[in-house]
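Data card: per-record layout.
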Amino acid sequence: MRKHRVAVDVGGTFTDVCVFDTDTASTTVAKVSSTPDNPMRAVLEGIRAANVDLSQVALLSHGTTVATHALITRRFPKAAMVTTRGFRDVLEIRNGTKSDLWDAYKDVGPPYIRRRDRYEVTERVNYVGDVVTPLDENEARQVARVLRRKGVETVAIGFINSYANAGHEQRMKEILAEELPGVSVSTSSEILPEIFEYDRFSTTVANTVLGPLVSGYVNELEGELSDGGYDGDLLLLHSGGGSMTPTMAQRYPVRLAASGIAVGAIAVRDLAERCGYGNAIGLDMGGTSTDISLVHNNEIRRTKEWHVEYGFPICFPSIEVLTIGAGGGSLAWLDEAGSLRNGPASAGADPGPACYQLGGKEPTNTDASLGLDRLGTELVGGAMSLDRTAAEHAIAGQIAEPLGLELDEAASDVLQVANANMADAVRLISIRRGYDPRDFALVVFGGAGGLHGAALAKELSIPVVVVPRHPGITSAQGCLLVDIRHDLTTMFQAESSTADVDALESEFGRLESDATERLRREGVSESDILLERSISMRYSGQWRSLTVPISSGPEALAEAVEQFHEQHEREYSFRRDDTPVELYQLLLRATGTTPKPSFPRRDTVEQDPPEPIAHRRTYFEECKGRVDTPVYDREQLAAGTHISGPAVVEQLDSTTVIPPGTPAVIDEWLNIRIHVSEASR
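The structure for this 681-residue chain is written out next.
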């Protein structure tokens, strides 16, 4: 029997590996520096660092940044688009929104496919799917020949109203296959069969430019793993909080554009549920950025529209994660007015913070934590040494001296600005959505989460902070908790009071047949398939819609409408029961369940902490200076151990800071629970 389940999560600074042994229920972790030039190299190095025998691996799941990095850097293969005559510029006209409404000179970047690489053909289908103008196949072949001469590697097809009738797009795809054999082709009717051509075209184009890159990466990694002895499927994590096999990943590569971000939210839900918290806010603070997610009543918030770069929406269902440029490597800097700022620019993995001594000269959050003695001089179990003198020199020269501050005060201010940025982001995903942070637990993880968790909870009046057993690899651990999943949609526009219930049921049945077939192709047995329906609705006259779950049966639609009213009131503070409700879109979540690890639960025995491994004079804002602070090795903290701050807890993949007067306890899952609400005033 193969006994290992391996999860790999690639971050901007580090690549994390989590290995679960099903025989002993023990977890082994490894952390190596990411290799942005070739992410696969870090994946393989991390597996080797964890001493994993691939021939003993039953399941290997992987959250990858390949797609995200490609969209950010715009390093694409040669791509083109074919669209309906007269609609060549939809990608640039967009929908008129701007990231900064009041800046007349600030606009989004250019489309992923340039105008000169977008071609038109004559065809037209109306909104109900009737052919108004047949596809001109001579024009289609002429375009295909031009693309062949230009050496195009991947093509997007986006015709108007193809969501209602995909015939012309499919025929165009056949012509391209005849004229350009081997070229990757994505059609909007296959990728996103929905109304609103800009959203549909944007999603299809993103899928198109990522196709060859993801295919190349997946095929090469599969080959390396196979050569090492692994003969199972490589499961790739996607933005919807599920996984898919390489075959499906090559068909829908755009779903990997938020791959690593989503699994952190999965881990948060699992951790919170085990700890007895139905409501939790997840804060994943790594070296480059912070990802914030929300779990309410054990359900993760999801969204139907997101982006890697503003102005280019990706409209696959996704776990809602708010990402800001606040990580351990985020740069502290002074703006033109002399005000202290933090992020979003980052030192990243190369050259890294000044204390890494790899060429970085600008001060970062890591330098500030090190300068205040909240962070030790060694990381990753001694594999990386930090230079406190270099950190202090960077802060003194670029922050303290220009502002006329003492070194400790400047370093503290750097971290307080970073905390303020993260607190604002938490408010956006909670208070702005109608949720009170005081009703939630704060689950902090990532390499830097434990350094900032207690301060953030205090700022937001969150009563308790949960620091997982292995904070630095929590996202990787989340990969082990993810099922194979697909999200399917179709348009269904009708008024709820007069909707044809039989037609509604028929459409859901069609989606369920398609989903079941996909999961069967991926090796999922019938007994492991779970199908969950939902429906998008809106008040008559509205543009935006809300999605609510719907069951089957004669009362299902009425129950869904009532849920819509309740959700609308929570999110927008009003409801209109006497206003007609329009049905807009049907959605189906198809899940193929996979085996999950069973984490061991310890018996708790109330006890004092062991002898500290060190003492440091650590700076805390509460004390307006430095105080003697014990440093504990987390490996020595047993379940039931009570700690009273100030304290610092160190481990291989992270450091946790417990402020003065704040109690903490090691729970039955070996999490650190910091009870901020019980802190002495």
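Known properties of this structure: The mean pLDDT is 89. The chain has 16 helices and 35 strands.

See the next section for split statistics.
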